[in-house]
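Fold it.
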Amino acid sequence: MSAEHRPGDDGSDNADSDIATGSADSEIATGSADGSADGTGTGATDRLGGAPVPFLDLGLQHRAIAADVDTAFARILDRCSFVGGSDVGEFEIAFGAYCGAEHAVGVANGTDAIVMALRALGIGPGDRVAVPANTFIATAEAVALVGGRVVVVDCDPIHQLIDPDSVANAMRSGRLSAVIAVDLYGQRAPIDQLVPLVRNHGAFLIEDAAQAQGATRFGAGIGSGVDVATTSFYPGKNLGAYGDGGAVITDSPALAHHVRLIANHGSRVRYQHEVVGTNSRLDTMQAAVLNAKLAHLDGWNEQRSAAATRYDEMLRDRADLRLPVEMRGNRHVWHVYNVRVHPSWRHRIVDRLNERGIGAAIHYPVAVHRTAAFADRVDIADGGCPAAESSAASTLSLPMFPGITLEQQERVVGTLIAALGELAAEHDVAHDPAKAPTPA
């Protein structure tokens, strides 16, 4: 089966065991290249020799916090404080402070976080909301779930972040009620460029920060400069729980209050329901895990950054790869390390990596407006989304997690270079350099 059609590469909930991260809250976040389900990467060596390298190794993180989690779980079980326990409030305060925000409201998952933010801002049926075409489907789903109309906009071709010029094009074709800026792969969107554009248009600016816990732009953390930010604590995120979880981050007490109201069946007082709400609460055990992990987040992000630098150094001279670029002013936290290859080779490269025990993945193989779910229910910004479609056709993600070793990265890079060399030989590139495809 080609990578373009491998389960999970299309953002499905049932990703196979070596696909391990995503943009919102619905993708598999554990697993290893040897097919084990626990994300530890243990198992037999692959047929070419060498230990498999998982896309993500959550076991390393768990071992660092196991004692703290065991203590917290024992306390929660003793008190039976499974919903609304003190750990939730403690985490909300700590995470809000970490982000530099006045309020963080825990909810059930990252998709709900976007839905709650939209509802709290009054976005509803008929409202047009700009969404980058190269995001995980949940960003667009949230707009559809509140009755809004998705307007897909392009990304910039260098950083693959939402393109302010494409947003401006979308505004010229009709009024936007909101713009959702996605912090893709671990770096914040160009919020400073979007703020004047959105404010002059009279729209709201929402930040989907599911992949960017700990990222900053000109020193400011997620939620800074926007009306509201959302994030996901799905296990594979930089700050991940042991199940689903999410949060809404804002400086507005009124907005935070409204989110809490909606997420708790529209109720502040039991059996008194002020609005039509839903059940979307961060449970106490997940909050306990997040409390334990938050203290390690900066250190883990630094390890990701060091790993990204090593990949850069090992791959910088490859003409057949395009490496990721950190936008000026950003502190990237490397949720994903993605490279670009020629579209005609991408699926074969991923297949060969996976076959040889390397947990490569694709984020994301289909632009939002090309999915069956949204093909006939979106507007497209003037000029289309050529950069996003190019990204969808050419991007692939290499193993990235805190604690990945130099030896593991050398094995990843060696296997990748071998696959590229094999494809070059198959296409007789040595005798005809014109046949060598260049990265999209």
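The mean pLDDT is 89.
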